[in-house]
Amino acid sequence: MPETALEVRLAAARTRLILDQPFLGALVLHLPPRPAAPSWCPTTSTDARAFYYNPDYLAALSLAQIQYCLAQAALRCALGHLARRGQRERRRWELACDLAIHPLLLDAGLSPPPEAEAALSRLFVGLSAEEIYPLLDETESDEAQTEEAEGQGGRAGERETGGAEAGAEPAGQGRAAGAADGVAPEGAAMALAPPPEPGPEARERLARQWRERLAGAAQQAQGAGRLGGELARLVDHLLRPALPWRELLAHHLSRLGRDDYSYQRPARREGDFILPALRGERVELVVGLDTSGSIREQELAAFIAELDALKGQVRARLSVLPCDAELSPEAPLQCEPWERTPWPARLGGGGGTRFTPVFDWVERWGPRPDLLLYFTDARGDFPARAPDYPVLWLVKGGAEVPWGERIQLN
Length: 410
What we know:
By secondary structure, this protein is an alpha/beta fold. It has 14 helices and 11 strands. Helix content is 38%, strand content 12%. It is elongated and about 75 Å long.
C-alpha cells in the first residue's frame, strides 16, 4: 500500500529528529505512529508502545512542530510519567508532565505548536511532574484542564495504556477498527479505537523497558557528543542509583556515634582491676531548613520526624535554623537528644533562597558542628567556600551543590 502524504511527513520528522537530536530520535524510534480517532485522541497521545495521532490535527502542523509532538511523547515514556501517575487525577497529572517536559524541548531547540507555547509556561523550569502537580489549581475543572492539555500539542485524551501484555498490539488495530469513531483524511489508514487499559505487570514491564531505552539512547548520544544542556543533566539525575534517603541519612548519622571502649583508670572505689567500659559524648548537629516556599511543609515535617527517630541513637544535640533569604527570627531552635525536635511556628516563604546565613550563624555564634544538614532544593546562593566541617545536603529536585555531600530526596 503506498504511503500517504501525512505518513511521509511523519517519517521525515522522525528522520530529522535522529539527525538533529540523536537522543530524542533514538527514543522516538520505539513509538511507531498509529492514526487514532478524534473522539478519544483530539491531538496526539501515547501508551508507551505507540504514538497515536489525530490525522486532521497532525496534517495542520509544520514538520518542526510534528518533531516536537513526537519528542514530547517519547519523553513522556522515557521519564516514566505514565508509570509514575499513581492515584493522581489524570488530566491534572498530564498537564504537570507537559509543564515539566516543555522547557526541556525548548532548550533542545524544538518548535512547539503555537497553542503549546501559549498554554505552557517556563515558571516550572527544573521541577519534576511530582513537584508541579500540587502547585496546579486543584479546583480547576476537568474541562479547563482538558482545554489546556489539548492546546499544548497532544496530551488531552491520553490513555495510560499498555495492553494486557507489553509488546502486544493494541486492540482494535487495523483498517476496520474505529470506523464508528471517526475517519482519517482521504488516503490515510482508518483511525484506531482506543487500546485497552494495561495490567500492573504490563505497566512494570514497560517502565523497565523505557528505562533501558533511556540509558541506551543517552549512551549513544553522549558517545557522539550530542547530548548536553538540561536533557543531559536530567538523564544523569534519572540514571543515578536510587537509594532511600532515610537509609542514607541514618548511615551518615551513625558514623557520628562516639561510643567506644575506654581503658581510662576508674575511680579507686571501683576496685583494683582496669576493665574496658563503654563511654560516649554528645554530637553537635546543625540543621538548616529551606523555608523559601519551594519546600512544602509536609516534606519538612517528614524530614523532622526522621531526625527525631535518629538523633537519640547518636545522642545528638540539634540546632535547627529555618532560613529563606535570611534566618528566621526564631532561629536557633535547639533541643537535647531526648527532646522532641522543635518545629518553627512560621515557615515564611517567598523571600528567595540564600544558604550563607546558616553558615554565618555557625561561624559567629554556634558550636562547631560535627555535621551540618541542609534540607533544600539547592536553588539559591551558596557560600563561596566550603567550611572546615562536614556538610550534608538533602536535596529535593535535580539541582547540584558546589561542595559537601549530596543525598537525593525524591
